[in-house]
Design goal:
disordered C terminus, 180 residues, alpha+beta, 5 helices, two-stranded antiparallel ribbon
């Protein structure tokens, strides 16, 4: 994988996680003097310059609350890369998106109507509802809220060493709000 495409956690000046950016973007912000490196990896990209893992803005930036955009990647993350019918874990290339109420029957492209599904189960269900196909939906899809983006960022970040304390999670991956 290209080193400049690696994920870097961007923190506000108040140490609040804002978003995940590419290593290339973090290096650009670093050279412009807008961020400080909070945690670096052991990957040296130039002599004496290490690839950052966490960067923090010097100046506080107000981040407005907004709804998370619906995308294939965000739906895969929401469902944990598991099929909504068989519950098995798959890679992103092995998954599809399934309309619970099919588009042919008036179903919409919404968080509440889309679920990740393996190709086998999606083919078996076809243009029918789960009840019509005799299939059981293992869990109802979670609708999008203003907190969906934060949840997705936490899901991504719990796999990266050193990010957990900035995403309000402990070492076991349990998310908890901590006051200091």
């Amino acid at each position: 994988m290209n080193l400049l495409k690696k994920s870097v956690l961007l923190l506000n000046a108040s140490y609040e996680a804002i978003r995940i950016i590419s290593a290339k973007r973090s290096l650009t912000l670093l050279t412009k003097g807008k961020v400080a490196v909070e945690l670096a990896t052991d990957r040296e990209i130039y002599p004496g310059v290490y690839l950052p893992s966490i960067v923090r803005l010097y100046v506080y930036k107000h981040v407005p609350i907004r709804m998370q955009q619906m995308s294939r990647k965000n739906l895969y993350l929401r469902d944990g890369y598991r099929c909504g019918y068989c519950g098995e874990l798959f890679s992103g290339s092995e998954l599809t998106l399934d309309h619970i109420i099919p588009k042919a029957q008036g179903g919409k492209n919404t968080y509440e109507n889309l679920i990740t599904c393996c190709r086998k189960d999606n083919h078996r269900k076809a243009d029918r509802t789960p009840a019509q196909a005799g299939m059981v939906l293992l869990r109802r899809p979670i609708p999008a809220t203003v907190h969906t983006g934060r949840h997705i960022m936490r899901s991504l970040g719990l796999e990266t060493a050193g990010w957990a304390k900035y995403l309000w999670a402990d070492a076991e991956g349990e998310t908890r709000l901590q006051f200091k």
